Amino acid sequence: MTTENKKATTRYAKPALWGLKELLYTAIRLARARFASQHHRRAARKVIIIAGSNYRETVYEDPSNVAKQFRSEGGIIITIEYLQGKEKSIPIYKKLASPNYRLITYVDRKQLRAQELRQLLCKANCFCKRRWVPYTIDQWDAPEGGCYLPVKISSTQRLATRTCKRKNGGILAVDEDKEKDAFLTKCKHSLFLTLCISCLVGDFTKWAKGRQTTENGDCVYMRRNGDHETEWFSDECDNDHFHICQTKPCDSTKYCPFQLSNDEREI
To answer: pTM for the full model?
Structure first.
């Protein structure tokens, strides 16, 4: 492993007799140690990119175990297979890669482009901060549906709105479909849903029978009934309820638009 600056310097020298298996094992182990050091930024994602053109089995250290441990710690491994000759895949790279983070240089007569790696890096860097719960995990384990923080202290609608705004520019959670309703239900027994009845998003509603009215107030909260199903009720905005804050995940999308001028560059 080398560091590239004005003068390339070797950081970790390996014996010439070592095979790729030992190099992969050692590289992943050293990367884990680096991420665990005081020099690593706490908020930064841990991502390893492994690129190779062949692999030969040896009797020494198996890199799949240390790779599995790294992934279990929240790390992401991206692999790039440079196939040679009639090779269709290199099995060890599939074993090392995080789910759906595996790239092959030539698949179905299509050459791998730099844009595909760039998008994986964007997905890897889409995450929720500590204590925030991710929603709508996609195939890359990215919280595209946002991040949610249940607040432990009940408060009025105005204070709840202010609290959420102070927490990463968030808003009160919006119950907008059946899937999200099930997600929010797991978080709190009773909670404010949104700023006001007129602010509800889309056509989805779960009003309790005979309660679809502003008679009791201009705010909305959700509560479980005797059958453990959630229902909506209106209430005065000055009454206290627990709430959940909703915000966008930390990501790199502003640096990674879907269409870039150099998306045809080969890697």
So the answer is: 0.71
219-256: pLDDT as tens digits: 888 888 777 788 888 889 899 988 999 999 887 655 55
Confidence band of 176 (pLDDT split at 50, 70, 90): confident
Is residue 165 packed enough to be buried (19+ CB in 10 Å), middle (13-18) or exposed (0-12)?
Answer: middle
Distance CA 110, CA 50 (A): 21
Write out the residue limits of the CATH 3.10.100.10 domain(s) in the chain.
Answer: 133-247
Backbone angles phi, psi at 175, to 5 degrees: -90, 105
What is 23-125's CATH superfamily? von Willebrand factor, type A domain (3.40.50.410)
CATH of the domain spanning 133-247: 3.10.100.10
